[in-house]
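Checklist before submission:
- one chain only
- standard amino acids only
- sequence pasted in full

Submission:
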Amino acid sequence: MELTNEQWNRIEPIIFRTTPVKDPRGRKERDPREVMNGILWILRTGAPWKDLPARYPPYQTCHRRFQQWVRQGTFKVIAQELAQDLYERGGIDIR
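Returned file contents:
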């Protein structure tokens, strides 16, 4: 699953409200949209993190960001926002 522009516009403000944890090795931060697409691929497929396809950022980056967002409560808000988007488009019944 790749985020549509509409979905990204819904969750982008949520992501940028969080304070990113700096990489201790000083690496440049990866594009959050690409990271989120990688996380969604893992959640959709159920594959191990190490099997994340090369078209996404490194699996370590996606996993670290996923853990950060879960700890901060950010991922819960993102998931709720994406579920609301699906509901509004008739793709899911969240009642």
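Reviewer check: The chain has a mean pLDDT of 90.
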